[in-house]
Amino acid sequence: MGYIAPKIKNDGDKFNNHKPGEPGYEFSQIPNRLLSFVMRNIQGNCGNRLKLMIFLMGCGEKFEIHEKTVLKRTGMVQSAYSEARKWLNDKGFITYKPGTNNPTIKVNYAYLWGLIQEEELEEYIEKVENPAPAPQESLDKDGFPSGSVIIGSQYWSWEKYHYLEDTEYFKSQGIDKKEIEAQLKYYFPTSH
Q1: Where are the domains of the chain?
Q2: What is the average pLDDT across 117-139?
Q3: Of 58, 87, 143, 162, which residue is the least packed, with the fewest Cβ within 10 Å?
Q4: Rounded to 5 degrees, what are φ and ψ at 157?
Q5: 3-class secondary structure for the chain?
Q6: 151 backbone dihedrals φ, ψ, rounded to 5°
Q7: End-to-end alpha-carbon separation of the chain, Å?
Q8: Amino acid 191: pLDDT
């Protein structure tokens, strides 16, 4: 039996029966792709770096945040905060400009999204250059893949259809994808 992923359930209300945005019940918005990238690229034993990055991504632009507030909200001590901020700055995740006149911490979203898009492009190229092998189908007594039917000049099964449905195969071969799906539903109505 395969692994079944657990469902997330809440014990109580996330906002403690208040409306999101009420004082004390504000919330942060961080795109999942961005958050996932940050979590993958900050080592697991570097919790303060991750806490600080998530905290900064949750802040609105031009939001002024005092060091004491960061320390209180993240539970870090000053030396841990300084180390985390320096590491994030050195890696290009943020740009920290200290000073008494207009100090800033800039979250480098353009850089991060560029890295995400580069990573996704590399994954796409890898997938195109090294596609997963087609699933092996067992043959019936006549030598045809079991659970298949001839449609047009090819055999088709739900397994083959699903393997090819998100590719350019149908378009490149001039095959009507909807017709193949309709025929498969006719011959194998409970198999898809």
Answers
A1: 32-111, 132-192
A2: 76
A3: 143
A4: -135, 165
A5: CCCCCCCCCCCCCCCCCCCCCCCCCCCCCCCHHHHHHHHHHCCCCCHHHHHHHHHHHCCCCCCCCCHHHHHHHHCCCHHHHHHHHHHHHHHCCEEEECCCCCCEEEECHHHHHHHHHHHHHHHHHHHHHCCCCCCCCCECCCCCECCCEEECCEEECHHHHHHHCCCCHHHHHCCCHHHHHHHHHHHCCCCC
A6: -125, 120
A7: 20
A8: 67
- Residue 64 in this model has a pLDDT that exceeds 80: yes
Write down the pTM of the prediction: 0.63
- Among 131, 122, 160, 128, smallest CA distance to 144 is for 160
The three-point CA angle 143-145-149 to 5° equals: 105
CB atoms inside a 10 Å sphere around CB 53: 26
* CA dist 109 → 52, 85, 93, 152 (Å): 15, 16, 8, 51
- Length of the chain in residues, anyone? 192
Over the stretch 84-116, which tens digit does the pLDDT of each residue have? Answer: 999 999 999 999 998 878 889 999 999 999 999
Protein fold of 32-111? Arc Repressor Mutant, subunit A (1.10.10)
Q: CA dist 169 to 162, 166, 188, 190, Å?
A: 12, 8, 22, 25
Beta strands 154-156 and 94-97 are: unpaired
